């Protein structure tokens, strides 16, 4: 499916957006079509009902926008050891064996089904993520013969970093995706 097709956009949107589109088909069909064609016209919204159900399944149990912001803010206030432990706990919940890595370029190693993923996360507070950190991660992957690499950051990656990650099969983990991973992390009490 094309990344910017209507259905792809609706799958990334909240589930109720597709439900509203489907409801719009029903309302327009019953308001504008002759009585003999109303049901057939209303069925034009069926694909949007399916998209709504698919989006709801994907979004079930995921943090909403307010919690995403709270999780990212909390992650930004943590020290390195606390943040590393939050990441390790989250990946263990996902079924990975997690161990700390000492050395340049990588901070954590995730293992599952005989595959190793190295994670670079110490620069998670950087405002902009550059390609240099990704080069260090790529070198660590080669040195340790790992299969994948993930760079964790709260800041936005530069265009050069995005291109480097894409060209070298690295994953940039930040924003909403990072909040989804940390969704069970305890948040500090509100003041």
UniProtKB/TrEMBL annotation:
Restriction endonuclease type IV Mrr domain: residues covered: 77-182
Keywords: Endonuclease, Hydrolase, Membrane, Nuclease, Transmembrane, Transmembrane helix
Any one Gene Ontology molecular-function term assigned to this protein's record: restriction endodeoxyribonuclease activity
Transmembrane segments: 15-33, 39-56
Domain of life: Bacteria
UniProt-listed GO biological process terms: DNA restriction-modification system
Pfam family name, one: Mrr_cat
Presence of keyword Transmembrane: yes
Cross-referenced InterPro entries: Restrct_endonuc-II-like (IPR011335), Restrct_endonuc_IV_Mrr (IPR007560), tRNA_endonuc-like_dom_sf (IPR011856), Type_IV_Methyl-Rstrct_Enzyme (IPR052906)
Listed name of the protein: Restriction endonuclease
Organism: Aquincola agrisoli
């Amino acid at each position: 499916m094309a990344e910017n097709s209507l259905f792809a956009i609706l799958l990334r949107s909240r589930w109720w957006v597709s439900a509203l589109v489907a409801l719009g088909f029903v309302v327009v069909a019953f308001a504008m079509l002759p009585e003999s064609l109303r049901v057939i016209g209303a069925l034009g919204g069926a694909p949007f009902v399916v998209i709504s159900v698919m989006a709801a399944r994907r979004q079930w149990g995921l943090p909403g926008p307010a919690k995403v912001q709270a999780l990212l803010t909390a992650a930004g206030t943590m020290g390195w050891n606390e943040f590393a432990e939050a990441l390790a706990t989250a990946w263990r919940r996902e079924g990975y064996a997690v161990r700390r890595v000492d050395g340049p370029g990588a901070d954590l190693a995730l293992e599952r089904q005989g595959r190793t993923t190295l994670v670079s996360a110490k620069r998670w507070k950087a405002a902009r993520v550059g390609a240099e950190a990704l080069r260090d991660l790529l070198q660590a992957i080669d040195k340790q013969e790992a299969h994948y690499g993930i760079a964790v950051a709260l800041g936005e990656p530069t265009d050069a970093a995005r291109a480097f990650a894409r060209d070298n099969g690295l994953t940039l983990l930040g924003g909403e995706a990072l909040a989804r991973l940390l969704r069970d992390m305890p948040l500090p009490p509100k003041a």
